Amino acid sequence: MTDEKSFVEIRHAQKAFGKLEVLKDISLSVDKGQIVGIIGSSGSGKSTLLRAINDLDPLTGGEVWLDGVEVNQKLPHRQYEKHINQMRQQVGMVFQHFNLFPHMTARENVTMAPMLLKGLSKDEANTLAEEQLDNVGMLERIDYYPSQLSGGQKQRVAIARALAMKPKLMLFDEATSALDPELVEEVNQVMRKLAEQHMTMIIVTHEMDFAASVCDRVLFMDQGVVVEEGPPSMLFKNPTQPRTREFLRKHLENAK
Amino acid sequence: MGLDFSMVPKYLDIILLGCAYTIGITVAAAILSFFGGIVFAVIALYAPWVIRQPFRLVAWIFMGTPLLLQLFLIYFGLVQVGIDLPAVVAGIIGLGLHFAVYNSELIQTAILSVDKGQMEAARTLGLSRGEALRKVVIPQAVRDVIPPISNNMIALLKDSALVSVIGVSELTLSAQRVIGKTYRPFEFYLLAAAFYYVINLAMEWVQRKIERRISISR
Ligand SMILES: Nc1ncnc2c1ncn2[C@@H]1O[C@H](COP(=O)(O)OP(=O)(O)OP(=O)(O)O)[C@@H](O)[C@H]1O
Ligand SMILES: [Mg+2]
After folding, report:
1. Do the domain assignments include residue B164?
2. Which of these, B62, B42, B28, B61, lies nearest to B142 by C-alpha position?
3. How confident is the model at residue A217 (pLDDT cuts 50, 70, 90)?
4. Structural domain count, chain B
């Protein structure tokens, strides 16, 4: 194996919570600008894998590399903290339950981290917030608090908040799962727009149609391993593994 | 002999001065207890063991002993080690720290009950744990405990009368002094009570204003 690394490179990722092995030797590479979808049943380890990429759930074994830098490298505690905060600034993450800061307006949600971590002035940060919120169609609600927004609007603000840090990589963990069905599309649209702008993305989702339409590649995970991966046209239309077929069949049934 | 308030105007300035002391001490101690409560909560939850343990002892002293004793300790006791505080300052520190410990208990619980996703979202953006606490978690925790903290502040107002024991002429002691001259205890204690009531109302008004302001940002 050569040591040529992809933009995002996960090598032999292992994660155990006590005795429970959640990730069993997962390797994955993602090129710059690529969009990778991760599907799989509940508890298969999708979130854990995603959260390992920015060390929110530290791996118990294996490596994560981003743009040539090892994310989870061994360093003395203090140095590691500095290093990981630096790395996290480069990775945007969007959560199922938005996790917007309820005591801040949409604007403040977006400006807080850039001002604190990148030293942006208030004016610069405001311009940035207007730009980013406009980008997700939320400029009109810039001074609203999260409690005054719908789920779809909250999630769009959360995406703007992540993008304001100008990340190299965006991680989405079921960004639309908590939304009422009629609000899903507005968030999907924002993600499609990001895809057009060639943002590198890893998207955990239960929405097969969406995954099929935006992803370059889709992984099916089950019980901590990647069972099958390939372009959506292959994985959704002609899955080779029985477990994949079973999952997709069940999923279709549930969708009915 | 009925009630006779005709002496009131003559001594009103003394009572008002006492009132000013009570308000000043209460406000200063309230501010100290608020920020002290936040600092204590963070120490109790996150400081390394060597800091946390001695701190717990101090916290226990403030929770487990009478405020009166604490005031004596700060005013008379510290003199022995060369710290000679003015009575007002000693009173503010005593009251402030005493209630800071109570506020800290409330804030600790509130910090722990802020949704874990908040810390995660902040860390994901690249904030350190300290930054995340300061910008995201603590402001939310504090909002959650404004009502019980306000109750503590009303208790603080009432307990501010205790600083009279170290010679501060706050409202209660002022009333007493006037009574010493006029022999009109009922009138002047009633007057003092009325002033406490008004200060109380003012504090409740401030509390409601704060609560209204933060109600949409939760
Ligand atoms: N902090 C934790 N402590 C213990 N076990 C955990 C923890 N986090 C996750 N797990 C377990 O790890 C397994 C994988 O969880 P994970 O959240 O990665 O699944 P998932 O594929 O994202 O599922 P879902 O579709 O429900 O979100 C589950 O069995 C879960 O119970
Ligand atoms: Mg999950």
Report:
1. yes
2. B42
3. very high
4. 1
B173/A contact by beta carbon, under 8 A: no
Q: Which of B126, B139, B214 sits opposite A113 (nearest CB)?
A: B126
Separation in Å, CA of A101 to nearest CA in chain B: 7
CA distance A68 to A90: 13
Q: Which domain holds residue B97?
A: 24-170
Q: Does ligand 1 lie within 6 Å of residue A166's CB atom?
A: no
Q: Do A103 and B139 touch (CB under 8 A)?
A: yes
Q: What is the CATH number of the domain that holds B39?
A: 1.10.3720.10
Answer whether residue B181 is part of any domain. no
Q: What is the ipTM of this complex?
A: 0.93
The alpha carbon of residue A4 is apart from the nearest alpha carbon of chain B, in Å, by 27
- B217 and A145 within 8 Å at the Cβ level: the answer is yes
Burial class (CB in 10 A: 0-12, 13-18, 19+), A220: buried
Ligand 1 centroid to residue A88 C-alpha, Å: 21
Q: How far apart are CA A86 and CA A67, in angstroms?
A: 13
Which pLDDT band holds residue A254 (cuts at 50, 70, 90)? confident
Residues A170-205 have pLDDT tens digits of 999 999 999 999 999 999 999 999 999 999 999 999
B9 in any annotated domain:
no
d(CA A84, CA B191): 62
**Cβ atoms < 10 Å from Cβ of A123:** 8
Q: What is the pLDDT of residue B18?
A: 96
Is residue B53, in this structure, part of any structural domain at all?
Answer: yes
Closest-CA residue, ligand 1 atom 27, reads A42
CB spacing of A145 vs B136 below 8 angstroms: no
Tell how far the Cα of A48 is from the centroid of ligand 2, in angstroms. Answer: 7
